[in-house]
Amino acid sequence: MKIEHIAIWAEDIEKLRRFYEQYFNATSNDRYTNPKKKFSSYFLSFDSGTRLEIMQMDSVKKSLSPPGESHFGFAHLAFSTGSQERVDQLTAELQHDGYTVLDGPRKTGDGYYESTVLDPEGNCLEITI
User: Fold this and answer.
1) Which structural domain, as residue segments, surrounds residue 114?
2) CATH of the domain at 12
3) Cα–Cα distance between 76 and 127 in angstroms, integer?
4) Listed residue (66, 76, 81) closest to 116, CA to CA
């Protein structure tokens, strides 16, 4: 068994789509829109076969938790880059481009080398080897 896809709600799916395409090499399908429900989405595919669905609908409410603050439920998405050098490069590139780096890059107590950043919607991303 495998996870087929993970879905997240977004305020601006176009901005989020471009972010994942630019920094994480995602490939997007064509935008799906259901005018009756005022719903739109993209499926973003990654080289590993994993897919991320980004969705937008007028009736979805904004989270009350500040971006990057821990709360019950979804915690983060983790992306494996393949090397410590790539973790460092991608983290530096994201920071240079104005994205929030919450932590790292660093070696964690359980042996991971990682950094933690926020995507444009405040979703927490772990960038690891």
Assistant:
1) 75-129
2) 3.10.180.10
3) 10
4) 76
